[in-house]
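Deliverable D5.2: sample structural annotation.
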Amino acid sequence: MGLPGHRRTSSDKRKRSAHFALKATTMNACPKCGKATRPHRACAFCGTYKGRQITKVGKKLNKKK
């Protein structure tokens, strides 16, 4: 049975978890509308991806009606 050979010190824990920090997301400009979009995803504003219309994006409906 495997057991820890020695106690993991607090500095060892911090060294091990140093790469767990969140990284900033990469944003590209949509070629059609110019809004910021994530790479390899359809634009949430105009619905295009690689120059083609992928999703229909309309005006949001007013829920009070």
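Annotation notes: The longest helix spans residues 10-16. The chain has a mean pLDDT of 87.
The annotation will be released with the project's public dataset once the embargo ends.
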